[in-house]
Amino acid sequence: MREGPLSGTFGSPPPKLQIAVASGQRLTRQCFAHCLGAALSAAVRTFDTVSDLIAANNDHSSITILLDTPQSELPEAIAALRNAGTGGPVVLVTDDDSSPAIVAALDAGVNGYVPTSLSLEIVSEAVRLVGAGGTFVPARNLLAAVRGGGGEPPRQSSDLMMFTARQAAVINELRKGKSNKVIAYDLSMCESTVKVHVRNIMRKLKAKNRTQVALLAGKNQTETVG
Q1: Are 135 and 47 found together in one domain?
Q2: pTM for the complete prediction?
């Protein structure tokens, strides 16, 4: 059963997001859709099941949010979406924030893993990131997964890292899980400039990817230079 769109009026992200929420719990999905739509100024449609969403969803690029879909049903749900030609990203919102559950969900093909312990502000930014082509996993859960797998997160030099004011601003946005496109918009930069800053930051931190930048930068205070 498809329900009407729920939208909000807060600040508009570029571009405007199209979101579809599927959950068998009607009150939960309607409340979630209302809050998320208001936070992102986005049109949010709600559905009882993934099958209902597929039958009614004409916008195959929209973000699909699955609320509390059991892990055992997740691969089948994502496969159904892909087989139906729904190529948009998929976000799982769930009470389970354990590392094995996160790894299993990523293996199943989700683009975002959002525990319900997170605030609405963070959830909104996570959905925004996924909509811009990124992948969201809470940093603390990712770190736990790395340690649980027998590995250690990369170590940073004990020397105080030096960053320009703009690099420090980019680091702050990276720690929020934002994509280059969103960072460029928020900081009034060209996306190509953001990419250059990210490469220089990774070099200084000896990080191999953006996730490591967020982890390493979060462990050390940064000093800025003009």
Answers
A1: yes
A2: 0.59
